[in-house]
Design goal:
globular; 4-stranded antiparallel β-sheet; 5-stranded antiparallel β-sheet; BTB/POZ_dom; 35 strands; Potassium Channel Kv1.1, Chain A; 18 helices; KBTBD2_BACK; alpha+beta
């Protein structure tokens, strides 16, 4: 019986290196590629190995298979050089400036590997600024993956995309495909009507033949009565008004709402899980849960879990309603404690960065951060995303690091570091500046100058507080009081207290003042998260009674009266225990794209893991 051996990878690498050497020294070459005035002496076997185009040419048996010079017309020499380099080395360099031409050339030469890598690169780079162009590229080269991803971005960013020059130049077929979509992220059908009219009027003479097919994509009964009256009555007699009136009479009197019309403002909870207790392996090893709560419907929905069992991420919802998570840690292995016979999980901090595709309920990877960070502060300011600090960055200097993400380029760059390294801090954005708050100090970052400026100190020293900006005011709420600015002393509301501390910063005056306290009940460990909900400052408060039952309530702030009102108590049957370390953000999500998941008391017991007779055994707690 013959012995089966694994392939000799060293020989394969050596063979490829020899081919590269022959190419560089022009040894044994048997064909010359001519691109404009540039010649590339190559080997037919190498070209045929990576390119279906050359394989068919050199093996066809026709006269062209015997030719020693092949002229390639309408191709770029530098791009052909990239593909030849890939054929001889397996190395492919793709950049923003070369990817589109490289994709087009790989399509022509039928270099499948290069084609797939370019496609994946383009899909990853899709954003609001280039999605229409990506749609056209995907359509031109019949790439369904690129076309589908670009269309989803157009649907998601439609309110800002339809005015772009590229959109107005769309083909009639692609325009109809977009306007007919149920998934357009529009809150009013008037937006779709305006997009249709802009496209028609961009070249009315040539596009008048498409008037009926384009306008028929508008869901007329979704338009407001005011718009309907203005559009369909009193129009001057011309070809357009005849078509419009005819459509109005023939359209059905019902419509399916666009996806954007179904959006609900929700509280998004990251790390929504029971607290870890005394060596319990279950809590630390289970994936992080992300849920969201709709105050309007009083329902809880489940978002897809973060990739790779991520925990302790930063979270951000941008003004245009994009959800991002960044950093965190992932479990590596369970380590055994000899004395206690228990296991604990070892974690590794990461630099990951993900965007949430709300239509697909999936997390899409973006360019990783430059530093690994646990619980970084994420803010959006002047068109950029900032990742500030984090617990995992090693050394005091590194903990001060600040980096900025460019969504159009999908890349991070380092910015001016924080003046000090803080373990507990929170960040908000107001008046196009970033404010970082911790203990009793606050620093302001001015993006135009890339500089940090120290602002007025607070009257109390507190950490782990929550902050939010509303208008000209910044609110610093709850948290733990600090003793000598170094050690945690006591919560800002504890047993026997009836309020939670609130401090207000006036940006124009650079002054802090005490605000009205939040009327918390007599519970231990109140946990507050400040958010802006329905354009109003609110807090979600978690109050834990002595028997460990968690209860939640949403309070709303009246700026003029400086008073807090109970806006909505949250039923314990709706929202159970989120734990103490969850992060909270507000975003508009689509209920139909999420899994409705009532947050109920856990049905499984807490467990510990013990080593019994050499085996890891799960033992329920008593």
């Amino acid at each position: 019986m013959s012995e089966c051996k694994s392939p000799n990878t060293n020989y394969a690498v050596s063979l490829l290196e020899q081919f590269k050497l022959f190419y560089e020294q022009k040894l044994l070459t048997d064909v010359v590629l001519q691109v404009d005035d540039t010649e590339f002496p190559c080997h037919k076997m190498v070209l045929a190995t990576c390119s279906s185009y050359f394989r068919a040419m050199f093996t066809s048996g026709l006269s062209e298979s015997k030719q020693t010079h092949v002229q390639l017309k309408n191709l770029d020499p530098a791009t052909v050089q990239i593909i030849i380099t890939y054929a001889y080395t397996g190395n492919l360099t793709i950049t923003d400036s070369t990817v589109e031409l490289l994709y087009e050339t790989a399509c022509f030469l039928q270099v499948e590997d290069v084609l797939l890598q370019c496609r994946d690169y383009l899909v990853k780079k899709i954003n609001a600024e280039n999605c229409v162009r990506m749609l056209c590229i995907g359509d031109m080269f019949s790439c369904s993956v690129l076309k589908q991803n670009a269309k989803r971005m157009i649907e998601h960013k439609f309110p800002m995309v339809y005015r772009q020059e590229a959109f107005l130049q769309l083909s009639h077929e692609l325009l109809i495909d977009v306007l007919s979509s149920d998934n357009l992220n529009v809150e009013k059908e008037e937006t779709v009507r305006e997009a249709a009219m802009l496209w028609l009027e961009y070249n009315m003479e040539a596009r008048s033949q498409h008037l009926s097919s384009v306008l028929s994509q508008i869901r007329i009964d979704a338009l407001s009565e005011v718009t309907q009256r203005a559009w369909f009555q009193g129009l001057p007699p011309n070809d357009k008004s005849v078509v419009v009136q005819g459509l109005y009479k023939s359209m059905p009197k019902f419509f399916k709402p666009r996806l954007g019309m179904t959006k609900e403002e929700m509280l998004i909870f990251i790390e929504a899980k029971l607290d870890m207790e005394k060596g319990c392996v279950r809590s630390s090893s289970l994936p992080t849960v992300i849920v969201c709560y709709s105050p309007q419907a009083e329902k809880v929905y489940k978002l897809s879990n973060p990739p790779g069992d991520l925990q302790k991420m930063g979270v951000l919802v941008t003004p245009d309603n994009d959800v991002f998570i960044a950093g965190g840690q992932v479990p590596l292995k369970n380590c055994h404690h000899g004395r206690s016979n228990r296991y604990h999980t070892v974690f590794r901090s990461v630099d990951s960065f993900f965007w949430f595709d709300a239509q697909q309920n999936t997390w899409v990877p973006k360019a990783p951060m430059l530093c690994a960070r646990i619980k970084p502060s994420l803010v959006y300011c002047e068109g950029y995303i900032y990742a500030i600090g984090g617990d995992s960055v090693g050394g005091e200097l590194n903990k001060r690091t600040v980096e900025r993400y460019d969504r159009e380029k999908d890349e991070w760059s380092m910015m001016s570091p924080l003046p000090f390294a803080w373990t507990w801090s929170t960040s908000v954005v107001a008046h196009d500046c970033i404010y970082v708050l911790t203990n009793d100090v606050m620093y302001c970052y001015v993006p135009t100058a890339n500089t940090w400026v120290e602002m007025a100190m607070r009257k109390t020293s507190r950490c782990l507080a929550s902050a939010a900006a509303c208008g000209d005011l910044i609110f610093y709420i709850g948290g733990l009081h600090m003793l000598n600015n170094s050690s945690i002393h006591r919560p800002s509301s504890n047993i026997g207290s009836s309020s939670v501390t609130v401090e207000i910063y006036d940006i124009d005056k650079n002054e802090w003042r005490l605000g009205a306290n939040i009327p918390a009940k007599r519970y231990t460990d109140p946990c507050v998260r400040a958010v802006v909900l329905q354009d109003t400052l609110c807090i979600l408060m978690r109050e834990t009674h002595m028997n460990d039952d968690a209860k939640y309530a949403i309070y709303q702030y009246d700026v003029e009266l400086d008073r807090w009102y109970l806006w909505q108590p949250v039923s314990q049957r709706v929202l159970w225990d989120l734990g103490k370390d969850f992060r909270c953000a507000v975003g508009k999500l689509y209920p139909s794209c999420l899994e409705e998941s009532p947050w109920k008391p856990p049905t499984y017991p807490d467990v510990d893991m013990f080593l019994i007779n050499g085996e890891l055994v799960t033992v329920p707690r008593t």
